[in-house]
Specification:
Elements: E1 2-8, H1 9-18, E2 20-21, E3 39-41, H2 45-55, E4 62-69, E5 76-77, H3 79-85, H4 92-99, E6 102-104, E7 108-109, E8 116-121, H5 126-132, H6 138-149, H7 156-171, E9 176-177
Antiparallel strand pairs: 1-4, 2-7, 3-6, 4-8, 5-6, 8-9
C-alpha cells in the first residue's frame, strides 16, 4: 500500500541522512496531539501537507513528502486521529479510509520500504511554490490553498475536489529514490 509521510525540510534532511524515518525523532508539533512512539502516515498527500503546515514549529520554507510502500498487515490504527475526527472504524484500514491516517510502531528503513521522496516549497510560501510549479496560475494556487485550508470539513463535494486536485498535483511531482 502506498502511504505518505510529510515533514519539514529540517526533519526530511535528517531522515535522508539517517536512512530511516525514526519513531524516536524529536517532535515538530507545537502542542502534543499524538502519542509518542509511532510514525504517522496518510493515504492522502494533502492531509500530511496540511497537518505539517498547521502544526510544526519549524519555519522551514520547504517540506519533504516521503512515498512509502508498506504492507497493510504492518499498519496500526491511529486512535489519536480517530478520536479527534470521531471515526466509526476501529481497525487500521477502516480508520485510514475514514480519517486518512494510520501509524506504525517501528523505524521505517528507506531502502526496505522502497521509499521515494520529493522536496516542495511550503504551500503557504506562494513565491517559492509558483517558482517550483511555474505552470500553476495564481488562481490554481489559491484554490489548492483554499481546499487544503478546508480539508477537515467532511463535505463530500469538498473531498471530491481535493482528491481531483491531489491527482493533478501528484502528476507534476518528481520522485527520487532514497
Amino acid at each position: 500500500m502506498v502511504l505518505y509521510h510529510v515533514t519539514t525540510e529540517t526533519k526530511g534532511n535528517c531522515i535522508i541522512r539517517d536512512g530511516a524515518i525514526k519513531i524516536n525523532s524529536p517532535s515538530s508539533f507545537k502542542e502534543e496531539k499524538t502519542e509518542k512512539g509511532f510514525i504517522y502516515l496518510s493515504n492522502r498527500i494533502s492531509i500530511g501537507y496540511d497537518i505539517v503546515k498547521s502544526t510544526v514549529s519549524d519555519n522551514d520554507n520547504y517540506m519533504y513528502i516521503f512515498k512509502i510502500c508498506i504492507p497493510e498487515k504492518e499498519l496500526l490504527p491511529d486512535f489519536d486521529e480517530a478520536k479527534i475526527k470521531k471515526c466509526i472504524s476501529s481497525d487500521a484500514i477502516g480508520i485510514l479510509n475514514e480519517c486518512f491516517s494510520t501509524r506504525v510502531d517501528f523505524d521505517i528503513n528507506l531502502k526496505k520500504y522502497n521509499v521515494e521522496f520529493t522536496k516542495l516549497p511550503s504551500i503557504w510560501n506562494e513565491t517559492l511554490f509558483l517558482k517550483r510549479f511555474p505552470n500553476t496560475s495564481c488562481e490554481i494556487f489559491d484554490e489548492i490553498k483554499r481546499l487544503l485550508s478546508n480539508l477537515h470539513n467532511k463535505f463530500n463535494k469538498e473531498i471530491k475536489e481535493i482528491e481531483e486536485n491531489e491527482k493533478k498535483f501528484e502528476e507534476n511531482l518528481k520522485w527520487e529514490k532514497c
